[in-house]
């Protein structure tokens, strides 16, 4: 740890009361992610009302597929966050700036050279693989291709938000996130239904609005970082490749990338199982709304808590206070349980009203509504498990233990749910409740294994080192 504090970072994270410090990191991130989740909800509501169930299914299927490829690039974000949190905790701003600059360069190259071309060419095959019906494929293909090709701005937005949070500034990403969501909603109000001279673009309009908003906001964020106005300052940072940092990014980030790829492949395979049901279109539409969007009320806030626990644990380990890291994860877990309880009450008390907001009417789509109500009962319970699991995942990843969550995810999100679905499909045929039960059991297993792994404490001995800057 530096002997002379730089005065740039919030030192209360490593030497003040634990609960207030965790909450200062958590609430802006939770609010940002909840507000960001509103962006997807608005997409689904508008597409559901202007395009119909096929449009909702197209967005849900497309996002699941898009995430499989995108996470290869976004795995760098975790590696960067590990470095930033450790160096911020040790009060080494020069290393923080170098780590962020190298992550920006690498992410931009991978987005343009890997994500865009692969996504464009494999999109049709992926939509066929998940058993999307012809009407769904027709809506999904242009949406999915545009997401692959034009997503570099959105990728940069998420990366820079993660860097600022890891450095202890959670409020600036909140402001950026609110701005991007409002801009996206405004664009969607024009592009999806078509207003004035703008033609009605439907699902394609949702993709354009999402990517354009991300590009504009991330461009502004890069400008501010280069000007040196924020806690991370890139105004005096070299932009040549620094292989010691790039290797560290992949050392810590690649296991998270493999984990995310595996989890999203599992998600795609679940959609394939859903597509094999007797009422596949209704089930995929219900899954897209209930799981992809409404369940985000839990997952987005829990992902926010995961980021807060990662930043808090990483900074305190960097400062030499591992016991404070443990206390921070406990505090974040209690917050997660409170949020999960509130969402569970909504899911159990007004499920049909929530589904109706997405254009799922009991008169027009009775099968989709009944399946959606059934799924929300399972998700009301599952939320408790996944929220606590994500908090402990953040604690592990923030301290540099990115391999543990990888192994846990393979067992809990792939082996268990897909194994159950495969067995039941081959023996007696699948019902929707079988798939929902498999998801619930997977989340419960992930929760248990994540808690056990964190309490083992192997993360206490992980070292983070990079070469000195070249002059």
Account of the 3D structure:
By secondary structure, the protein is mainly α. It has one domain (17-458). It is 80% helix and 0% strand. It is built from 16 helices and no strands. It has helices spanning 12-15, 18-50, 53-89, 93-129, 134-149, 152-166, 171-191, 203-227, 243-275, 280-294, 296-318, 322-349, 351-356, 366-398, 403-427, 432-456. It is globular and about 60 Å long. The two termini are 22 Å apart.
Quick synopsis:
By secondary structure, the chain is mainly alpha-helical.
Helix-strand sequence: HHHHHHHHHHHHHHHH
- Kindly give the count of domains: 1
Characterize the quaternary organization of these chains.
Answer: single chain
Q: Major β-sheet, in short?
A: none
User: How many β-strand stretches?
Assistant: 0
Residues in helices, as a percent range? over 70%
Average predicted confidence as pLDDT: 85
- Number of helical stretches of at least 4 residues: 16
Radius of gyration: 22 Å
Q: How much of the sequence is in beta strands?
A: under 5%
Query: Pairing-aware structural class of the strands and helices?
Result: mainly alpha
What is the 3D form? globular
Question: Low-confidence stretches at least 5 residues in length (pLDDT < 50)?
Answer: none
Distance between the termini: 22 Å
